[in-house]
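Quarterly update from the structural biology core.
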Amino acid sequence: MDSVKPEALGFSSARLARINAAMQQYIDEKKLAGIVTLIARRGKVVHFEKFGMADIEAGRPMQLDTLFRIYSMTKPITTTAALMLLEEGRIRLADPISRYIPAFKNVKVLDNTAGSGVHFVDAKQPITVQHLMTHTAGLSYGFDDNVYIDELYRKHIWEPIETAPGLTLEEFVGEVAKLPLAYQPGTLYRYSVATDVLGFLVQVVSGMPLDEYMKRCILEPLSMGDTDFYVPPEKIERFSTVYGPDEQGGLKVVDASQASHYAMPARFVSGGGGLVSTAGDYLRFCRMLLNKGELDGVRLLGRKTVELMTTNHMPAGVQPFPEDAFSGFGLGVSVILELRQSKLLGSPGTFGWGGAANTNFWIDPKEEVIGILMLQYMPSDTYPVVADFRTLAYQALVD
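Predicted structure, tokenized:
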């Protein structure tokens, strides 16, 4: 990747150094094990730094090419795959997904207006491709402890996977289709397994396994050679460990690098959270989106498709993030609508997303800036490292 002196692209080197100090403090205080930070503008890298350890137990320092589980940063790539099929005329946003996945033809919906007991009603409209891309399908994840629908997800989806791993993507989606919806399709935002279902739809329509389609149509054309659904043996020494808070203070291992299930080929290829990548690889994906669908002579999407992807698609009156009423959600990415009262620096139209282990990216089309943060720590909201990095990146932009 091309690197230039920050001042050549409107950044202050002295101010960028504040990122180093802040990230190193997280390491020194043993809050985080290791971090990689990257900032690019107009196709050039102005900041690319590494801090701490990729694997404390193995004594492996963080490297610029360390491999990270990007979890939900997989979602924009899966959405891109579906949008490529849309551009080929093979799917449409308004298509009912039951056209491609018949198991979703007669879904039931939890009746939230009923009194005591659990009641279900018919869906007033079918789940569409657009609903999957915007998390308005009525599906869920199973995160909420006291929500009936999420209890069903834990019992019928996640517990069987934990006790009997080896479920395929097709089998996973088949189990999801058996569960009732949390609300009527197209009426509310609820973060969910929708992108996993979308990934299966890509598999059905393309006639290729999802991982093969992604590799052939996105990853290889963009020269993202380190991005995959598993880490092969020859790269395992570059794979980072996931840490979490230790009860005694400090860090404990949540998912060791060499013992991780990512170290073997996956049967369940998760379009919602299954990819491993590097900061450099993900930069190439971000540059393609910032360039309106093209990078280094390779065009994956048309300009108008990227514009559609990065436009707010929420139904009138629906706020996907109650804590930030000035952000919306497009197709696979969040979108800043207004800066007024926003808690983050940036520009209207800035879009991006993050992963469960604190990986995060944003793309600011107005300033032509890309920010990428890579680390492996769960749960994701323990420390404000994502917000800190973003603030420190923008405060260094002086022209």
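The domain at 91-206 is CATH 1.20.58 (Methane Monooxygenase Hydroxylase; Chain G, domain 1).
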